[in-house]
């Protein structure tokens, strides 16, 4: 059966072992760290062109199993794919239209998997976005609390101000802003499972008078400038390039003149927003975030500017997200048996690859994450931001 292997594989020197369904095996280099167990004979001939999408799909669909540390799996899969396919970027994709129905379906697919599953590997507040490591030595809980504080400080949030939280998730930021900064928060999500748990946590902390969370599409937000500040964390990746103008226009119309808007989200490396190459982006779209689209920072800033928002501060948190994802991946790996009782095997395989793969991708600058702070200027061009950033670090 080993004769069916593409000859090019035999010339590689990788710490990888191939094991076939009949027990035969081949080491592609000394001291293998990872074993690919081929279950489907049809996969053999395709291993000569091992895109990351092919390898990931084979594992998710059960044509192949993996044995070894998940971080080593990612590193060796990338080396295998890069050695045989090179470093060509993906082509610019055809982007589907985003409407309320399809967006709601996509959010349901990703976020309504199981609250208990997410609880296994997220921090205690279940903040499902990039943490903020002030020194790089913090644990996950500390870094997530620092991120929430960093956002509120950048927004210069004051007691009694009305904060709109677009894509509020399990309510960690909404509760933090109300509890620590005295804000009145209105949060929205399209995930029913998130909303249920978020409301339970609001009630448990006695914050019902300051936090209101609703199942609502961003396109249905009021446009009367009733909010003092707006924050959107991990949301605009679901908007789509075609709707970016509408999205930022909605945030502009929701905040009062002089008010601040914070957009925290993953951004593309390539200026045209093409997905990560060698099939990694294709895998994410197929299995993890259906119809997700990552704009480049330049595109996000341009669309914000087109809609009247003045960008006043930008911060890259790429390595912060790499560390966050590494924490998530390690925590999931530590709870695989429990996770297998909470979600189907196929879903668990997807999430193992997704968390470890994204940690790897952020570490290697395949993708980025930016916090973009903007202001809706008053008619005379004024706003209330201080002259420096000194207040952020007191």
From TrEMBL:
GO terms for molecular function: methyltransferase activity. The keyword Transmembrane does not apply. GO terms for biological process: lipid biosynthetic process; methylation. The active site is at residue 358. SUPFAM superfamilies: S-adenosyl-L-methionine-dependent methyltransferases (SSF53335). The keyword Metal-binding does not apply. SMART domains: PKS_MT. Residues 122-377 form the Polyketide synthase-like methyltransferase domain. Keywords: Lipid metabolism, Methyltransferase, S-adenosyl-L-methionine, Transferase. Belongs to the CFA/CMAS family. PANTHER family: CYCLOPROPANE-FATTY-ACYL-PHOSPHOLIPID SYNTHASE. This is Cyclopropane-fatty-acyl-phospholipid synthase. It comes from Pseudomonas linyingensis.
């Amino acid at each position: 059966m080993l004769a069916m292997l593409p000859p090019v594989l035999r010339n590689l020197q990788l710490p990888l072992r191939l094991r076939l369904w009949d027990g035969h095996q081949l080491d592609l280099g000394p001291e293998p760290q990872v074993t690919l167990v081929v279950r489907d004979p049809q996969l053999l001939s395709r291993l000569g062109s091992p895109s990351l999408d092919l390898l990931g799909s084979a594992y998710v669909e059960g044509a192949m199993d993996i044995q070894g540390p998940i971080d080593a799996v990612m590193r060796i899969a990338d080396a295998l794919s890069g050695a045989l396919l090179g470093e060509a970027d993906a082509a610019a994709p055809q982007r589907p239209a985003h409407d309320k129905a399809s967006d709601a379906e996509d959010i349901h697919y990703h976020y309504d998997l199981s609250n208990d599953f997410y609880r296994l590997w997220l921090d205690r507040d279940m903040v499902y976005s990039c943490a903020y490591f002030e020194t790089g030595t913090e644990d996950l809980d500390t870094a997530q609390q620092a991120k929430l504080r960093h956002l509120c400080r950048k927004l210069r949030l004051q007691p009694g101000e009305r904060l709109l939280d677009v894509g509020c998730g399990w309510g960690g930021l909404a509760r933090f802003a109300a509890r620590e900064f005295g804000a009145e928060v209105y949060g929205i999500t399209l995930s029913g499972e998130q909303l249920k748990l978020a409301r339970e946590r609001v009630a448990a902390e006695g914050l019902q008078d300051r936090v209101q969370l609703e199942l609502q599409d961003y396109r249905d937000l009021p446009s009367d400038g009733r909010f003092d500040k707006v924050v959107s964390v991990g949301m605009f990746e679901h908007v789509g390039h075609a709707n970016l103008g509408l999205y930022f226009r909605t945030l502009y119309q929701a905040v009062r003149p002089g008010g601040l808007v914070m957009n925290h989200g993953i951004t593309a490396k390539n200026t045209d927003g093409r997905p990560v190459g060698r099939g990694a982006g294709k895998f994410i779209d197929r299995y993890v975030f259906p119809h997700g689209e990552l704009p480049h920072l330049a595109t996000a800033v341009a669309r914000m500017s087109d809609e009247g928002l003045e960008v006043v501060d930008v911060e890259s948190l790429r390595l912060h997200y790499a560390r966050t994802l590494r924490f998530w991946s390690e925590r999931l790996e530590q709870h695989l048996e429990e996770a297998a009782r909470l979600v189907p095997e196929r879903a668990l395989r997807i999430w193992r690859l997704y968390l470890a793969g994204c940690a790897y991708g952020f570490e290697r600058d395949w993708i980025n994450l930016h916090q973009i702070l903007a202001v809706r200027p008053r008619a005379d061009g004024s706003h209330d931001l201080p002259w420096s950033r000194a207040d952020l670090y007191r």
